[in-house]
């Protein structure tokens, strides 16, 4: 077995795994997409194979950091001295 044949086999297996993971992701998340709907992404994955899987991972799902709201509650504000120098003695509660 030549090195190129082995490399091609590894790439094909990686793309097949990415396609399968993308398809399972589409089928288990019915409404978390930036572009398109679940039906559109299923059709893209089934009709275009690994290229569709790469497109789905790049354009499709909403990532966790988009869903997380890390703003503080309205009744809490950060103290200015804690932001300016978090290691100072005055900044500790």
What does this structure look like?
The protein has 93 residues and is mainly alpha-helical. It has a domain at 3-63. 60% of the residues lie in helices and 0% in strands. The chain has five helices and no strands. The chain has helices at residues 3-28, 38-48, 50-59, 64-67, 80-84. α1 packs across α3 and α2 (38-48) runs antiparallel to α3 (50-59). The mean pLDDT is 78.
In summary, what is this structure?
The chain is an all-alpha fold and 93 residues long. The chain has five helices and no strands.
Gyration radius (Cα, Å) is: 22 Å
Instruction: Please work out how many helical segments DSSP would assign.
Output: 5
Number of DSSP E strands: 0
Largest sheet: none
In what range is the share of β-strand residues? Answer: under 5%
Alpha carbon gap, first and last residue: 66 Å
Order of helices and strands: HHHHH
Class of secondary structure makeup: mainly alpha
Helix content: 55-70%
**Low-confidence regions:** none
Shape: flat
Q: What is the mean pLDDT?
A: 78
Write the layout of secondary structure elements.
Blueprint: H1 3-28, H2 38-48, H3 50-59, H4 64-67, H5 80-84
List keywords for this structure.
93 residues; mainly alpha
